[in-house]
Design a protein that fits this description.
It is built from nine helices and 14 strands. The chain starts with 7 loop residues before the first strand and ends in a 12-residue tail after the last helix.
């Protein structure tokens, strides 16, 4: 019988998009987020280890990738990265539903160092900020370095068109323009670093995040009949979401750096009227200029913010961010300020959820 050689790889720690070793998977293609039966452990070395068990009631959250051509050679490079020869990790083959893929479990040496007290109950390393120890700036840059290959990737290629990162905080960050999209028959360019900002909030605070991961055939911030809105509607229907923050990018034509969109009279905020005042105060604290809510009110079409507020009665705010703040390769300090603003703005809205989010059951 021939040895089974899967063409896919499941990763759950530092190889995930934005992780400190994620660039090793630049040749691969992200297919989807999945939850595999098993237990995720913290280790003394600043990275996680998963033990897979199809009978387990716990789940390990991670990314499933399609391996590149010459996958046998590539997977051996991952073996070296994971310390196979040192018995740090061992490669295993997992059958999950109708799928089959490689992943890594702790080797003999590492298993001796973990116990039940090290279990990460959420199963999600990236919504365990106290555990994963990533620097938000470096995480965002590493995430976008991988995300850029999906800017114009056609939706018919294998893999999910949109990715949902499930967190524990009742805040949903949406990034519908993180890839190219079509509006009124014209292809509109991606809004760079928007998905990276949403994923950073997921990593640092445990927010939920929904971002586009393939070129969108229909603009999610303009039309309702699209995959992004279908997933958004499902999330808002089944989960307790207290606020939707829809992140967008804009040019540098105006002197201000941030613009909130909450409807013509703030109607998208519903009864949460203090959100806008906290937005302006937090921007001022970080030295970021915020423009009037009248410039991008998010009312001209069925925007994501309008969709959440009108269809699902969930408070929502659209945030337009100028290119100036989204250029870490030129303006590192400004980008760091932007990340700081976003994380503090969210934390002020739900301060009771700031600690130990990712380690909740």
């Amino acid at each position: 019988m021939n040895e089974l050689k899967p063409g896919k790889l499941f990763v759950y720690g530092t190889l995930r998009k934005g992780g400190i070793r994620s660039r090793h998977l630049e040749q691969c293609r992200l297919l989807e987020m999945i939850k595999v039966p098993g237990t995720l452990y913290r280790t003394p070395f600043g990275y996680p280890a998963a033990v897979f068990d199809e009978e387990s009631s716990l789940r390990v959250v991670g990314e499933l990738y399609d391996l590149p051509a010459g996958s046998e050679l590539f997977i051996r490079s991952v073996d070296r990265l994971e310390g196979i020869s040192e018995n740090l990790f061992s490669r295993t083959t997992i059958r999950f539903g109708e799928d089959c893929f490689y992943s890594y479990e702790p080797g003999i040496g590492l298993r001796r160092l973990i116990s039940d007290t090290d279990i990460i109950k959420s199963g999600n390393w990236f919504s365990s900020p106290s555990l994963c120890g990533e620097d938000p700036f470096c995480f965002a840059v590493a995430f976008e370095d991988i995300q850029r290959q999906y800017y114009r990737m056609p939706p018919e290629e294998s893999g999910e068109e949109n990715i949902f990162l499930e967190g524990s905080l009742p805040v949903l960050i949406t990034c519908p323009h993180s890839t190219a999209h079509t509006r009124m028959g014209k292809l509109k360019r991606h809004e760079f670093y928007t998905a990276a900002l949403g994923a950073t909030a997921h990593m640092a605070l445990g927010c939920h995040c929904l971002y586009s991961n393939r070129e969108q055939e229909s603009d999610p911030n303009y039309y309702d009949d699209c995959g992004f809105k279908n997933i958004l509607g499902e999330i808002l229907s089944r989960m307790k979401i207290g606020l939707v923050i829809d992140i967008h990018g804009t040019g540098n034509q105006r002197p201000e750096d941030l613009f909130p969109g909450v409807g013509t009279e703030g109607e998208f905020l519903l009864s949460s009227t203090d959100i806008l005042s906290k937005f302006y105060l937090c921007a001022k604290r970080y030295g970021i200029s915020a423009g009037s809510a009248e410039i991008f009110p998010a009312t001209m079409q069925m925007t994501v913010a309008k969709f959440a507020a009108k269809r699902f009665s969930v408070p929502a705010i659209q945030i337009e961010i100028s290119d100036r703040l989204r250029m870490p390769w030129r303006r590192e300090e400004e980008f760091r300020q932007l990340i700081g603003f976003l994380l503090e703005f969210i934390s002020e809205l739900v301060p009771e959820k700031r600690a130990e989010k990712g380690d909740q059951p």
